Automatic annotation (TrEMBL):
It is a multi-pass membrane protein. The keyword Membrane applies. GO terms for cellular component: chloroplast membrane. Pfam families: UbiA. This is Homogentisate phytyltransferase. NCBIfam families: PRK12887.1. The chain crosses the membrane at residues 119-144, 165-189, 195-211, 223-244, 256-277, 303-321. Keywords: Chloroplast, Membrane, Plastid, Transferase, Transit peptide, Transmembrane, Transmembrane helix. It comes from Rhamnella rubrinervis.
C-alpha cells in the first residue's frame, strides 16, 4: 500500500514540472503573438491616418471643405434659416401688391415729366423716396390684415406665414410696427406734404379696413371694403404721388393733366375689380367668419362675370380714347393693344373652372398682371 502511494507521488511531481514548462512556453508564445499583431495594427492605423491627413490636405489645397468641419454645417444651417426666413417674409409682404404699388408710382411719376431735361437725378431721387415710403406702408397694411385674419387665412390662405405658424404673432406685430414707423419717418425726412398725406390716409384706411374695434373692421362690409381699396389704389396713388413729383420735386404749381385724369379713371375700374375678385377664392373662410363680401352675398359665378364685364368696359373706354388721339402712333398702339388684351381676357375667363380654387387664384394673379400692363 505504501509502495503504491509512493509511486503515485513521484509521477505527480514529474507531471507538475511538465505542466509548468508547457504553461511558460504557451505564455511566451501568446505574448509574442499579441505583440506581433499589436505592432501590425499600430502600423495599419498609422498608414490610415497618414492617408487621411494627405486627403484632407489635398482637399484644403483644392478649396474643398472638410467633411468633418462643424463650421461648414453651421454655415449651411445659417444659410438655410436665412432662405426660409426670407421666403416667409416674401409671402408675408404679398408681393403682387408690392409690385403693383411700385409700378403705379413709377408710372404716375412719368406723367409729371414735361421735357427731356426732367429726367435727372432729382427725378430718380423723388421716385425712390415715394416708392420706398409707399412700400413700407404697403407692408404695414397687408401685414396688419394678416394679423387680424389668422383664423380666416388658415382656411383661405394656409401658405401665409402667420397662418402656417412660420411667424409668431409677436414677429408679425414687430414687422408691422417697424414698417409703419419707417414709412412715416421717411415721409417726414423727405418733407413732401403730398407724400406724407398719401402715407397718412393709406395708414388710416388700411387700419380701419382690418382692425377689430367698434365701428371699424370695414372689410366686413362689401361696399366699404371696396371703397377703401378704390380710394388707395386708384385715387391716392395716382393723385398724391403725382403731386409729390409736381410740387415737391419739380416745384411746379399743382395741375391735373388730361392723361392723369384718364389714368385715375381707368385705374378705378381695375381697383374695383381687384376689390371684388380678391374675395372669390376666399368664400369658404369668409362664410365661416361672417365676412359679408359680394361673393358671399351674390355667389362666385355672378361676381366673377361682373368683374370681367368691368374690365371689358375699361378696355372699351381705352380703345375709344385711343381712337380719338391726334397722334397716329398713339392711336395705333392704344387701339390695337387694348383690343388684343380684351380678347386675351375673354379667352382666359371662359377657360376658368369656377369650382377650382387654384384656377380662380391663378386668374386673380392674371388680373394683377393685366394691371401691370396698363401701368
Amino acid at each position: 500500500m505504501f509502495e503504491n502511494i509512493g509511486s503515485y507521488g513521484v509521477g505527480s511531481v514529474s507531471r507538475c514540472r511538465g505542466w509548468k514548462t508547457m504553461e511558460k512556453y504557451c505564455m511566451e508564445r501568446s505574448q509574442q503573438y499579441f505583440l506581433k499583431h499589436y505592432v501590425k495594427e499600430i502600423g495599419e492605423r498609422s498608414t490610415f491616418y497618414r492617408r487621411q491627413n494627405r486627403t484632407l490636405l489635398v482637399n484644403a489645397a483644392a478649396g474643398h471643405p472638410f467633411e468633418s468641419d462643424p463650421g461648414a454645417y453651421n454655415q449651411n444651417s445659417i444659410w438655410d434659416s436665412f432662405k426660409n426666413g426670407f421666403d416667409a417674409f416674401y409671402r408675408f409682404s404679398r408681393p403682387h401688391t408690392v409690385i403693383g404699388t411700385a409700378l403705379s408710382i413709377v408710372s404716375v411719376s412719368l406723367l409729371s415729366v414735361e421735357k427731356l431735361s426732367d429726367f435727372s437725378p432729382l427725378f430718380i431721387t423723388g421716385v425712390l423716396e415715394a416708392v420706398v415710403a409707399a412700400l413700407f406702408m404697403n407692408i404695414y397694411i397687408v401685414g396688419l390684415n394678416q394679423l387680424y385674419d389668422i383664423d380666416i387665412d388658415k382656411v383661405n390662405k394656409p401658405y401665409l406665414p402667420l397662418a402656417s405658424g412660420e411667424f409668431s404673432v409677436v414677429t408679425g406685430i414687430m414687422i408691422v410696427l417697424s414698417f409703419s414707423i419707417m414709412s412715416f419717418f421717411l415721409g417726414w425726412i423727405v418733407g413732401s406734404w403730398p407724400l406724407f398725406w398719401a402715407l397718412f390716409i393709406s395708414f388710416v384706411l388700411g387700419t380701419a379696413y382690418s382692425i377689430k374695434l367698434p365701428m371699424l373692421r370695414w372689410k366686413r362690409s362689401a361696399v366699404v371694403a371696396a371703397m377703401c381699396i378704390l380710394a388707395v389704389r386708384a385715387v391716392i396713388v395716382q393723385l398724391a404721388f403725382f403731386l409729390h413729383m409736381q410740387t415737391h420735386v419739380y416745384k411746379r404749381p399743382a395741375t391735373f393733366s388730361r392723361p392723369l385724369i384718364f389714368a385715375t379713371a381707368f385705374m378705378s375700374f381695375f381697383s374695383v375689380v381687384i376689390a371684388l375678385f380678391k374675395d372669390i377664392p376666399d368664400i369658404d373662410g369668409d362664410k365661416i367668419y361672417g365676412i359679408q363680401s359680394f361673393t358671399v352675398r351674390l355667389g362666385q359665378k355672378r361676381v366673377f362675370w361682373i368683374c370681367i364685364s368691368l374690365l371689358l368696359m375699361a378696355y372699351g373706354v381705352a380703345i375709344l380714347v385711343g381712337a380719338s388721339s391726334g397722334f397716329l402712333w398713339s392711336k395705333s398702339i392704344t387701339v390695337l393693344g387694348h383690343t388684343i388684351l380684351s380678347l386675351i381676357l375673354w379667352n382666359q375667363a371662359n377657360s376658368v373652372d369656377l369650382n377650382s380654387k387654384a384656377a380662380i387664384t391663378s386668374f386673380y394673379m392674371f388680373i394683377w398682371k393685366a394691371q401691370y400692363n396698363e401701368i
